Amino acid sequence: MSRRTALVTGASRGIGLGIAQRLAAAGYALTLSARKEEPLLHAASELADETGTEVAPVVGNLATEDDVRQLAAAHEERFGALDLLVLNGGVGSAGPVAETKMKTYDLVLNVNLRAQFLLIQQCLPMLRKAAAAHPSHGGKIVALASITGVAGEPGLAAYGASKAGLISLCETVTLEESVHGVTATAISPGYVDTDMTEWKRDELGQESMLSTADVAELVLAITRLSARAVVPNMVLTRAGEQIWRA
Ligand SMILES: NC(=O)c1ccc[n+]([C@@H]2O[C@H](COP(=O)([O-])OP(=O)(O)OC[C@H]3O[C@@H](n4cnc5c(N)ncnc54)[C@H](OP(=O)(O)O)[C@@H]3O)[C@@H](O)[C@H]2O)c1
């Protein structure tokens, strides 16, 4: 059987890097992307050295349509097919509806939803190809949504709206693309301990936050499902007394 390949966005740190590490250890050849070149190249070369897997870094901004198209094209040129697309790259933003500037709203929606829609479009031919080559496994999409996309959270309106849209997008992709062997899963965590949530660390306590390893574990589980099985959305909540809060 030919080796499996995955494309992971936002893979230079945080959750994306944690997922990339687990996929590399599982033998996936990888395309990794982020905006800043130096941390991305560093992460890619460390992963390649540690696991011996092929890792291709592609610098690009998800807010730029050409960069998103170029990212998919770079994976296709190097690997041909795509077994797993991980839509992880995203941006956080906090502020009440009454005070959120439309510029902020547009940025959040562009990076967290519009780019994901476009990248799915660009990758579908490669995912269908992988599914045709491995029909029992299929082609899979995993999208990092958020618990704020499942239950609204005060102060996270734009972010939550973008993630609710992403959960819906995953459902529709599964409904439309299962016939071609391609399915999508959203993962919806509460606060995970990364750079994105540094502003919450003191308030919540670092030890109460989810770990990137917890999220990566779910992604690995999804990769092991057969093409017959789909989990539309996995909510990962912090232990404690507030199940549906971030
Ligand atoms: N942390 C949480 O509590 C939490 C909870 C639920 C869901 N999530 C979601 O999980 C995903 C990863 O979050 P994280 O906490 O790991 O974030 P993070 O630590 O801030 O890392 C974000 C990653 O995405 C890249 N990135 C950011 N903006 C980008 C852009 N415009 N274009 C291309 N790449 C971009 C970053 O690299 P560059 O800066 O170099 O571009 C970095 O590699 C996000 O979609 C987030 O919304 C996070």
From TrEMBL:
Signal peptide coordinates: none
SUPFAM superfamilies: NAD(P)-binding Rossmann-fold domains (SSF51735)
Family per record: Belongs to the short-chain dehydrogenases/reductases (SDR) family.
Species per Swiss-Prot/TrEMBL record: Saccharopolyspora oryzae
Protein name: SDR family NAD(P)-dependent oxidoreductase
Taxonomic superkingdom: Bacteria
